[in-house]
Please model this.
Amino acid sequence: MKTLDYIPTGKLERAGKLVSTGVKIGGNYLKYIGEKITNPDEAKENFDQNNAEDIYDGLKSLKGSALKVAQMLSMEKNILPGAYVDKFSLAQFSVPPLSGPLVRKTFNQYLGSYPEEIFDNFTFESINAASIGQVHKATKGELKLAVKIQYPGVANSISSDLALVKPVATRLFNLKGKDSEKYFKEVESKLLEETDYTLELKQSREITEACSLIPNLKFPTYYADLSCDKILTMDWMEGIHLSEYTAQAIDKRETKVVGQTLWDFYMYQMHVLKRVHADPHPGNFLVDDSGALIAIDFGCIKDVPEDFYVPYFELATSEAMQDRSFFIDKITTLEILRPDDSEEDSAYITDLFHELLGVLTFPFHNDTFDFSDELFWAKVAHMSERLSQDDKLKKLNGNRGSKHFLYINRTFFGLYNLLHDLKADIVVNNYKKFI
Model:
């Protein structure tokens, strides 16, 4: 794969790259108009494919928060066309890496030495390259290590990147008024945390120690003396990414154990620790030869405040689905209903979210749940399509829901998709055995 000797870090440079990508998309649209006449059956599919390639090609050279957005969108399997999901999923762990000279320069800048001076062996060709950093393999004494290096300028460009996408997001999600700023601030704060590898090391140690009692779950050890704000060193863990694992013909008994482990890991974090690994994509999990699940990235940790946790999970009960006044009280507390909603709008939104949450919380209404249930996923897809095409909803103020929904919903959608890929049949409250 071609390596990068330079990453645009200035606001004007990055904006220019996005503008050039927009020009390509405009050209694709003109091509689409012509192809609709000559090849109507394949025109839309070709349009999506060309756009996905051009957008991804533009973002992968920018890296940082721009590429992180693509990574997050790749998890929206029920919203985006397949061409975008397939292309953007590459942002999870396979993008052009930094060149060897730039890796050496980064090491010397932040650790005061070159990698070959710190480690006994260091592989300059990266093993994985993602949105914020890339991973190299190294050894020191008896230790086999994974060394994550952050791309230059990532932290400094987050605010300007978000400023560039803010107008698009505002139109896309129909955000109005000053209170929409809370959502952008939430994203910005989480992205900034992900660029702080000292914080990640601390979070990694805390979460892994707390969750070490869960069977079939493994974590690397982290090394503070070989790490800093922009470089993070941990054990090298043998295994294959979860996406590779699910693509193989695996014994269903084994995938059931892996799926249960993944579910228990998340439920223990959510209900016991009240802080959760909020980036559940396949690149952050490995499965080893013994069938153990390995969690390898704790850069994005979301704390779950009590005043959000309680009403959020009260909505996940069957009682909430049966008691309308109770349901209204909870969605008001969670800012789904707004004080300026008319009586008609309030009734409409209540009915819509009652149907939506009835689908999404259904796994919690059972003792066990099979995430390979295609009827469940058909309902999820139907609700996603309905929300995206609901003209009345588009006319209402899109500033709905606590800012905490952004990463908590992202966590559950990501978890649901991973469990669907595993075709996992899980015991819902199994995590309580570890309390």
In short: The longest strand covers residues 133-140. Residues 11-38 form the longest helix (28 residues).
